[in-house]
Amino acid sequence: MSKHQDKSAPLRMGVVLFPGFQALDVFGPVDCINVLSWSHSVTLALISSTLEPVTTKSPASANAIGQSVVPTHTFATAPSLDLLLVPGGLGTRGSNLAIEEAISYIRNVYPQLCYLITVCTGSGLAARAGVLDGKRATTNKMAWAEITGLAVNVDWVPRARWVVDGNVWSSSGVSAGIDVTLAWIEEVYGSEVARKISNSIEYTRHEDPIHDPFAELHGL
Amino acid sequence: MSKHQDKSAPLRMGVVLFPGFQALDVFGPVDCINVLSWSHSVTLALISSTLEPVTTKSPASANAIGQSVVPTHTFATAPSLDLLLVPGGLGTRGSNLAIEEAISYIRNVYPQLCYLITVCTGSGLAARAGVLDGKRATTNKMAWAEITGLAVNVDWVPRARWVVDGNVWSSSGVSAGIDVTLAWIEEVYGSEVARKISNSIEYTRHEDPIHDPFAELHGL
């Protein structure tokens, strides 16, 4: 497991984007990193199939609203990264060119990463890329059966706000992405930095990774 | 106070965007509305000075990272709205063309709105637009002195996760935007709809508007 050891060196972060990503899966974690970047050196690559804006609207949700975010790199031009964030969302479901390209990218880049964070059903993309094989991981609790059914070689943990195994930090659904990111910041930058960020965004953290009210809600 | 009475009619929502908006101020509330739009009719306008992508990076934060979101309308072409969301962020501070245009838009559109939601220092923009005069409102607790100093005719409430006065719903900092939005959804669409959305995003709500750990943290 490689680590981002030198905290004075820029943290090189990347985020995978695809049509139908869940907005808060990205912007919960990324806004924590935005605040981190006010005091620490960070570079951010928003990575997708093309440089066209990427919508949060799933191709399968005809009547839903969406917002479009501008990528900075394609999967072919993405820079070297320390940390990759993989969000979930309705767009992770099924197979299409954007999702297959995202899965290939995750498979190819994982060996060079210091850390991988998955949020919500983003763990399904990491699982389909094979990078969770033999690892403990968690995912969205409402989509539990669907996502865990994608990969029998993953040791899925049903009651967890987030799970750390080696350099893979996987979280439960949507808002849990904020908690896993703050826990990751605490691990890498220290508890004081994490505390300042959570106070800055007035967020009451889930600090216990095995406290999971949503597992209980879904009888897991 | 006008209301969005007919829940089968589309909710026409708008969001003000300007350089240096806080990402989570927008995408916490908006992702709640994204999930609402899976089951209820919603239209969304992302409104800014021009149709160029709008960055979360503040002009004042040279080294910070940012993400760019594509507006759907300008202040001049924005459609009629039921609900306007005004986010905060470092970009609200001071005076520049984008912020002055946002303030003018808020002042001009407010009389036609059913509801106004402000998040974080977005209440400072609403205050500068004059639409909070004589009303109770709250804001970000870390930026308390700065924002409340902008408008002496507002009855600023120091200990509040959010405040409702008439058709104005103002929240405390950043993450509090999720709570005020879920409270607003509960008021307009009912508690069951709000509960389904918060469970869907695995968010543990602050349900008591006067419980405010961040006011305590800042000695307010």
Describe the protein's architecture and organization.
The structure is a homodimer of 220-residue chains. In chain A, 31% of the residues lie in helices and 18% in strands. Chain A contains 7 helices and 11 strands. Chain A has helices spanning 23-36, 97-109, 122-128, 144-148, 176-189, 191-200, 213-217; strands at residues 11-16, 42-48, 54-55, 68-69, 73-74, 83-86, 115-118, 136-137, 155-156, 162-165, 168-171. Chain A has a 7-stranded mixed beta sheet with strand order 5-2-1-6-7-11-10, with helices on both faces. In chain A, strands 3-4 form a two-stranded antiparallel sheet. Chain A is globular. Chain A starts with 10 loop residues before the first strand and ends with a helix. The model of chain A has no long low-confidence stretch (mean pLDDT 95). Chains A and B meet through α1, β2, β4 and α7 of A and α1, β2, β4 and α7 of B.
What is shown here, in short?
In chain A, 31% of the residues lie in helices and 18% in strands.
String of helices and strands of chain A: EHEEEEEHEHEHEEEHHH
Q: Work out the strand percent of chain A.
A: 15-25%
Mean pLDDT of chain A: 95
Q: What does the main sheet of chain A amount to?
A: 7 strands, mixed
Pick out the low-confidence regions of chain A: none
From the spread of the alpha carbons, the general shape of chain A counts as: globular
Secondary structure tally: strands of chain A: 11
Count of runs of 4 or more consecutive helical residues of chain A: 7
The span between the termini of chain A is 30 Å
Classification by helices and strands of chain A:
alpha/beta
